[in-house]
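Q: What structure does this chain adopt?
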Amino acid sequence: MPIAMSLRQHWWIGVSAALLLLYAVLSLLVPHGHALAAWGDITQLLLLLAASIVMTANAVSERGQTRLFWSLMAVGCFMWSVSQGGWTYYEVLLHRDLPDPYFGDIILFVHVVPFMAALALRPHLAQEEQKLYFTTLNFLMLLIWWVFLYAFIVFPDEYVAMNVPLYSRNYDVLYLVENLVLLGALGLLTAGTRGAWRTIYRHLTVAMALYTFCSEAMNAAIARGQYYTGSIYDIPFVAGVCWLIWVGLLARELKPRCEPPPPELSRWMALAPRLAMIAILSLPVMGYWAVFYLDAPLQLRHFRLLVTLAAMLVLGVCVFIRQYLLDHELMRLLDTSHRSLENLQRLQSQLVQKEKLASLGQLVAGAAHEINNPLAAILGYSELLSSNEALAPNQVSMAQKIGQQARRTRDLVSDLLSFAQQAPAEKALLDVGSLLHRAIKMETLRLEGKQVRVETKIAPDLPRIWGNGNQLFQCCLQIIGNAVDALEEVGGGALAVEGRREGDEVVLEFSDSGPGIREPQRVFDPFYTTKPIGKGTGLGLSATYGVVQDHHGHIACHNRSQGGAVFVLRFPVPTTAMLPEARAAKA
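A:
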């Protein structure tokens, strides 16, 4: 493919050289007349159409900012072709000289604006965050500004109160300024880039410089009455358009890609919005000058004032729309930042909790194993003493109390070992809906005679999750049990249990109408409890937190505004690639 592209470029260079040589020979040998004008007009029109086709082909083959860049270049070349088509229509088909003023002059003036907009995109820079509607607004505001300049400076002497010499002079000066601005932008981009894009910008600069030079030469020749279509003055124009086509062919071979922006160029480009605001603020100044200081007939001054007011209105609407979109984008970014901060805080909390649980688990595991051995001996001897018939009743009662406290200590040690368990339990696909129903039924048995009602809302089509059924069952029992204990403190209430799917997660939600949680941020800390001494160890929810984390889930709690506490457990829905069988088969 690169060889084919290179051959195409060499072929076009050869065709361009031959065309320029032929054009020069004909302009020198063929006398001024209809045949020479037809040759010049048709040649220039075909070249501009070819430039439009090449730019369009580049736009079709690219994506993103680069596609938009070549699309705007194609629009500028097409408008250029339209202006040249009007010239061809008058001179070739109608056999008439071009009228003065000529309607195509407006199109010729405006065709530079899409080129400016294309350069303002800076396609050589990676701008993934830039929105298309901001680019569109920039293009519209640029177009409106240059149209306003044309309507303010040139149009009054062209159509309102015709003054051909003044109109021609103003048009030539403004068109030169427009082309010089384009050349200045190309020069800055050429100096601030590297690689393939620098090559493209450099050749675009050469092509537009040739056109600017020939445009000024043509205008000077027209003023002297020496210009005619097909003359020697057209050769730089033909060379510039041929060079522009070659740039499009070169870009198809180079396939330029985005690059990180240099810091100094980014700072310079940050001036663009401020310059745009200065241009908008200049409108009332120009209107004031047109009314009070411009030496022109009253009719022209009124027209320029109306043009200024119309431009202020249209640009004001554009600024309003842009500000609205910027505010909307700012709110979106703030919302995204807020969610990111919440996720970061949650992640930090989880990391701190995991570190606390891991450190404390290692300590507790060692202590619990050491306590188990003497505890077993105490329990054995207490049972032996309580069964000894030779002891007095008060001694037997004391032995039984020792055994009761030893059994309580054994249960505490069992909780400690469960809390400190580090080996992962066996997991399988679980029907979390049936697990929830079983936990609710078990807790319902101890609610008889109590003013506690349980409301369930469990989706029948809950997907299975990957986990250990016994561990998750104990987690549900622990949360339901805590809620029931809280409701008993206030004389009863309602407990709502809900199971649903949200995206790729299974969500279990437990909410009660009790007094709420005193310190929600500490509820998963080990040994933290609000229950009376002897009733709770403060390890249940800590163990639950560890189990949920081991299942790659997330647990959170908060108080409801209407009263009560809410516990929310989230577990990922496993995909085929997440299952151990699939991973083993892949390995």
